[in-house]
Amino acid sequence: MFKIATIIRHLSRPGGRCYGLLLAFLMSFPAHAADDVAALLKKADAYRLPAQAVRVETVVELYRNDTLDKERRYTVYIKPGRRSLVLMKSPAEIGQKVLMLADQFWLLMPDTQRPLRITASQKLLGEAAAGDVATMTWSEDYDGKVSGESEIDGEACLHLDLAAVRPGVTYTRVELYLDKRSKRPVKADLYVSSGKRAKEARYETRTVDGQPRVMAMTLHDDIQPNRRTVVRYLNIQAKEAPDEFFNPAALVRNSLAGW
Amino acid sequence: MAFPSPGFPLSNPLPQVGEGTCAQGMGKGDNAGLRYLIPLLLCSFAACAGEFNAALTLAPEWRGMETASPYYVAPPLVAAGRRAMRSDLELRYRDGGLNAQGTLRGNAREGESAQTKGILNQLYFDGESGAGSGYTAGKKVLSWGVGQGFRPLDLIQREDRRQLNPPPLEGVPLLAWQRYDAADSLTVAWSNPGYGAAALDRDDPGIAAYWYRLAERDDLHAVARISRRHKLEAGAGWARALGEEWTFHAAALYQRRGLTPLNTLAENGGTPLAAADPMQESARDGAVKAVAGMQWTGRAGFGVLLEGWYDGEAWTREQWRRLDALAATQHGLAAAVPQSWVDGNLAWSSRAFEYPNLLRENLLLRLSYEEENWKTHLEWLSTPRDGGLVTSAAATWQGDRQRVSFGLRHPGGAAGSAYARSPQARMAFVEWRYALR
To answer: What is residue A24's DSSP assignment?
Structure first.
């Protein structure tokens, strides 16, 4: 069995000019593979986030034995650079805000009017973590490889094995299944840092304004199979809120009125 | 000699655990007009275009009295207050930059007639004065700095962080200007504009500045304030999240003038009984307050908070010893003077238990667990100088519209500690809150 290093040494030896081109060709494979994954993730992201800066009206539903147990509503502002601002709209949480800047989170409670640092793992509702609601892309956070093909619910899918490229993302590893033809996200297995699978996510696509969009994500819990959390994206609108609204100290202001 | 009439402590009841300056401040909005005007005004907003929210809260509580405490004074000189009920109808309205929050509160306490009052918690307007700058005018809750059990940089709001079941905060009248971009923020606030000399920090007029910077992974805070009571105050704070589970924070404040209410009889000696309130504020140059802590939050819902703080305006162990010695002397005089004279003085002294921090050095350990609808915590507050210990436990269940909380607090620790000698014994509460809309 040849070792890669042996092959490279052999191809690179002096006088091996004709092998040089072959070497360059072989060396280019990993880069192409990475480019392929990046391109696949960007295509998959486009189903979830149609513009770089958006305002998303989100509802999170927690079902127990297929019966709706709880519901929470959020308005989410997302900007490039992994910036998200979540405004909570349900009566039980009205006035609360969560700001996400890359892997850093702040929570503002309306009673104290003081931004408080929280961690990504602090949950909003059911199986939905703050990161599940505030993050809608993979391409900025993950890289990996196409590890094969699988059939999910009768659909031929590409199986991507992704690892986080940044610290502090909600899930350190994601096994993502994209529809082989359209690259539409179908399913994801979400793993935490311990290596354990935390959730399974299923993506529901509908046509909005003539474009196919992911309009719901259902999270299943492995430990409590009678529970599922559905994150529905009621309205996704291209909107660029000013940078200063993403300052933790500005959370105490009502500056987003009209945005 | 004119000693306090039996009615005195009834109008200034024994401080209740968890009722500090915030509760006193509530009285500002208490008059017959506000009682009905605020709810009517806010209800009328319901027909307007903005966001209108209403919530009903019922919060019964039970407070035990420690009859063995040297500071215990029997009713009726001090109200027993064993059972009480707070009923709040809280109304909020928000439309653009306009924010209003008011409460119609009913208070019923065992042995006293029920009272209702209207409280204007907040009424302010946030306006924009250009890109990245804005102003605030009105009464607003404005909290600054870092810390869980103690926040030395909270120069305007100055809330008591040690209340077991605090009512909604009441803001401070202010005019403020703020400039902010993606990483920096500067706020200049004139609090209590037009107010004269005040007996309480929260009513003290002053000009304050607050600077915040998000520097990579660090929150940096700096504050400065000039006021009548404290002259110059200046401080800085820091917070950082490390990974997905750890947060760290620290802050320190220097006060040009520190103010501590002390019993003049205990501090100055002389006659052991006073004819007028001997609890007088004592000023000293240069007081320091500081806090440092860390918090771990695991994915499974468990959390640990460890925090220590130093409050340079709180009492020292020696000051408590002198007050204990005074109380012992006053008890010794019971055979020679009318009991009401002794009881009146003890009631005055017992106000020392009202302060948020009984001693300067404090350590807090809180274990918490959250799972879906439930949040629970168990915590211990220790005063290592005298071995005092306060144990608290609480749980909250949050539904779609309803929230139920209940908890217990028990002061104790070493026999000679301030908490163990408190006339307050254990306390329990239940709170039911229903979001009407």
So the answer is: H
Per-residue buried b or exposed e for B135-174, using 16+ beta carbons within 10 Å of the residue's own CB: bbbbbbbbbbbbbbbbbbbbbbbbbbbbbbbbbbbbbbbb
> If residue B11 lies in a helix (H) or strand (E), which one and from where to where?
helix B8-11
Query: Contact, B12 vs B77, CB < 8 A?
Result: no
> For residue A97, which of A204, A258, A249 has the smallest C-alpha distance?
A249
Q: Choose among B393, B360, B429: nearest CA to B19.
A: B429
Residue numbers of the domain that contains B417: 127-435
- Distance of alpha carbon B346 from alpha carbon B337, whole angstroms: 14
Asked if the structure places residue B159 within a domain, the reply is yes
Nearest to B212 by CA among B307, B146, B123, B163: B146
DSSP element (H, E) containing A143 = strand A142-152
CATH T-level fold of A46-252: outer membrane lipoprotein receptor (LolB), chain A (2.50.20)
Question: What residues have CB less than 8 Å from A87, skipping those under 6 apart?
Answer: A74, A75, A76, A77, A96, A97, A256
Q: Do B241 and A114 touch (CB under 8 A)?
A: no
d(CA B370, CA B382): 24
Asked if the interface predicted TM-score (ipTM) of this complex is over 0.85, the answer is no
At B122, the pLDDT band (50, 70, 90 cuts) reads very high
- Cβ–Cβ of B435/A71 closer than 8 Å? no
Query: Which residues does chain B have within 8 Å of residue A242's beta carbon, measured at their own beta carbons?
Result: 131-132
pLDDT at B292 over 70: yes
Specify the pLDDT at position B38: 63
- Long-range Cβ contact pairs of B202-210 (< 8 A, separation 24 or more): B202/B21, B202/B22, B202/B25, B202/B157, B202/B158, B202/B172, B203/B25, B203/B28, B204/B228, B204/B229, B204/B230, B206/B155, B206/B230, B208/B155, B208/B156, B210/B144, B210/B185, B210/B186
Q: Is B297 on the interface with A (CB under 8 A)?
A: yes
pLDDT at residue A128 is higher than 50: yes
Residue in chain B closest to A108 (alpha carbons) equals B143
Contacts of A113 in chain B (CB under 8 A): 140-143, 157, 169
- Using only C-alpha atoms, chain A has a radius of gyration, in whole angstroms, of 21
Residue with tokens 């966001």: B51
Q: For residue A4, what pLDDT band results from cuts at 50, 70 and 90? A: very low
Asked, for residue B325, whether it belongs to a domain, the answer is yes
Q: Where are the domains of chain A?
A: 46-252
In a domain, B119, yes or no: no
Q: Is the pLDDT score of B49 beyond 50?
A: yes
d(CA A58, CA A75): 6
CATH of the domain at B148: 2.40.160
The full length of chain A comes to 259
Compute the mean pLDDT over every residue in chain B, rounded to the nearest whole number.
86
Q: Please tell me the total count of domains within chain B.
A: 1
Structural domain includes residue B230 = yes
- Whether B297 sits inside 8 A of A121 (CB atoms) is yes
Which of the 8 DSSP states describes residue A242?
-
